[in-house]
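$ ./design --mode recover --in tokens.txt
reading tokens...
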């Protein structure tokens, strides 16, 4: 890491506050996912403008999903360090993940009856409906229901959900550091070693890719290569949680420099997307911890990004099924629809669930 990350004078040391750009970045990433998925769900090659500009190295989803994981690594590590017990930590994580997830699963299980061409008895008695709600609710994702969306290029009801088991798996792995969480130096050593180990595993897995070998070895039916890929970004964010933030000027400079370096590499050279493991945390954490006017005020309207992510794919599938839109029409109307559903999810489900947090004072988080 650059020495600038730890050289901020004590009088100017920054911290992650409620006034920041993290809400905006998460909402932007959820929107990016919708943009790229619009190609695939229409049966088109998933080649958005970034994909074309970078020779197939980077797409909007390539930015979005790793971006979510970087920010998650940072914020969840800080949450764990503030938690009073492992029960408190996991309880807060469950309140954030499951209410919104269970809501979208149950509502879509009902909505999909109307596109199934089955009687109510035939539809609701079929095992795929049960598996879609029950197993997906336990993070062993069941993506299809018999007879639903079979006319469409993709039959999946919600293909975006595959990242959630990885996220929860990282919560569990992070909890293994619970008993050293007060020792920032030990935590930092563990996270750096984990990053190096994951990086080595990533190159070994991709160099020896074998679908038959990976089958059944993943977390909740995910391939090890997928888990390792996203875990690298999570750990990159977690490392930042253990470091003091530089001054505002240095954070702007660091994020801007890392941004230019990354896109300079992928625009000029092939096979350089792997540098995102190092550069995305250097872009997103400093950028997110700043508070730009207007952008940092988004939390006033609620944290809708998770709901937008959950609802983006189902909204797109329903629009395609009923209206057969063009690509541009699908992007525009699915973003509008996902934002509406994300807002409703936040106001009616997620925000209310978060009020159920244990009424305990946060433990000190340690140095920032």
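writing sequence...
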């Amino acid at each position: 890491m650059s020495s600038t990350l730890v050289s901020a004078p004590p009088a100017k040391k920054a911290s992650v506050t409620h006034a920041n750009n993290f809400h905006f970045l998460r909402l932007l990433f959820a929107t990016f996912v919708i943009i790229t998925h619009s190609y695939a769900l229409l049966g088109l090659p998933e080649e958005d403008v970034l994909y074309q500009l970078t020779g197939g190295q980077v797409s909007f989803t390539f930015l979005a999903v790793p971006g979510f994981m970087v920010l998650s690594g940072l914020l969840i590590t800080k949450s764990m360090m503030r938690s009073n017990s492992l029960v408190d930590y996991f309880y807060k994580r469950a309140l954030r993940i499951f209410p919104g997830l269970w809501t979208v699963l149950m509502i879509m299980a009902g909505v999909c009856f109307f596109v199934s061409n089955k009687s109510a008895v035939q539809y609701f008695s079929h095992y795929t409906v049960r598996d879609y709600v029950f197993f997906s609710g336990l993070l062993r994702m069941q993506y299809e229901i018999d007879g639903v969306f079979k006319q469409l290029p993709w039959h999946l009801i919600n293909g975006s959900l595959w990242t959630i088991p990885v996220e929860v798996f990282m919560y569990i792995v992070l909890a293994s550091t619970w008993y050293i969480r007060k020792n920032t130096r030990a935590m930092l050593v563990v996270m750096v070693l984990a990053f190096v180990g994951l990086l080595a595993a990533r190159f070994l897995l991709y160099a020896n890719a074998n679908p038959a070998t990976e089958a059944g070895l993943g977390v909740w039916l995910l391939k090890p290569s997928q888990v390792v890929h996203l875990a690298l970004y999570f750990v990159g964010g977690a490392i930042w949680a253990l470091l003091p933030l530089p001054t505002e000027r240095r954070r702007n400079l660091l994020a801007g420099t890392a941004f230019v370096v990354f896109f300079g590499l992928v625009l000029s050279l092939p096979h350089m997307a792997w540098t995102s493991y190092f550069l995305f945390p250097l872009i997103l954490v400093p950028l997110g911890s700043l508070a730009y006017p207007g952008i940092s005020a988004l939390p006033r309207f609620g944290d809708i990004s998770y709901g937008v992510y959950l609802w983006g794919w189902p909204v797109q599938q329903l629009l395609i099924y009923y209206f057969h839109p063009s690509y541009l029409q699908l992007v525009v109307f699915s973003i509008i629809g996902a934002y509406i559903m994300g807002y409703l999810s936040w106001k009616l489900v997620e925000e209310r669930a978060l009020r159920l947090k244990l009424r305990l004072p946060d433990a000190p988080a340690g140095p920032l």
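exit 0
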